[in-house]
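Appendix B, record 7
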Amino acid sequence: MNTLTLKDKTLHAIAEKVVRQIPVSEQDALYMLQTDNILELGAIAHYLRTKLHENKAFYGVNMNLNYSNVCELRCPLCAFSCDEGDKQAYTLSIENIEKKVRDAVSFGIDEVHIVGGLNPKLKLDYFEDMLRIIKQIKPELFIVAFTAAEYDYFAQLNHISVEEVLKCLIDAGLGALPGGGAEIFAPETRNVIAPKKISGSRWLEVMQIAHSMGLKTNATMLYNHIETPENIVNHLSRIRALQSETGGFKTFVPLSYHDGNTQIRAKRKTTTGFDDIRLYSTARIFLHNVPHIKALWMYLGEKMAQVLLRFGVDDIGATYYNEKVVHAAGAKTPNYGSESYLKNLIETADLTPVRTVSSYENRLH
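Structure tokens (predicted):
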């Protein structure tokens, strides 16, 4: 990239660092998050994205399994959780789960993505049985399951360590961890939007443990609620620092906040294109050591996800058959996008679609 083509002096200096493989600073990140020069910012992000992944863009064919919406935390930001006994409360039996997975397998899924509420009635054997039955249905299914908050809870509820929980679930078929529950790390903001959830520091500790046991994980960040640009930079910085230590994060996934049926009002009903472009481009540039940046079409809408493929993003997410969490908060996207639909989004962005799972082990279809 010829950085002399960038007219913005600060972005020019950032581009020089990127070309020379020097990590950009937190001050650089703050500038990028607030610049209106999104085309030059995007040029830097797309340079990095292309350097890492050439002309490829990734997508998956998977199902979401939300096993229970009963949750002790009842975070103000969440529209999905319920108290035991609420009219809409549910917990899936292992038989229910088996049927749902068999139905999704008929669609040709490669992966099952599992998250749920912190339900005190569900002990570790329920989750071991869940993973084992999924592997019995189709042994090659990749399982990405349970957030750091869930692992911390499982450990407490069963009076064992997080390491022991992970070992049991690896033995049952666990393949990787999703990045949920990170929200925003800054305590002053986290304590408002998710006051009972594990701290940002504890989230990072659980991920560090998972990485030490050979598991790859995602990292997420929730935005468009009450966070500040400084909160975002702090969040990115802490992910980058842990990644430098462990190398265990495979993907960073910003999540646009939907405030329907929640107690926290979003900054805007929908983020602006500038907001999304600045955030995803900054994430790609700042997180030089995290290989993938994912823009979930279900959160952003398919048009914005497609645009972001030219602003640092290399993965638009998956089919997410039977997704419930973001739709409980008012997402207007369908809860299932066909494979042909996702491939078309990528191809019309002039990129080559690659079907994969959360480990990025490519599937040939």
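Remarks on this record: Residues 293 and 313 are 5 Å apart (CA to CA). The beta strands are 56-60, 62-66, 111-115, 142-145, 176-177, 216-223, 249-256, 292-293, 315-318, 352-355.
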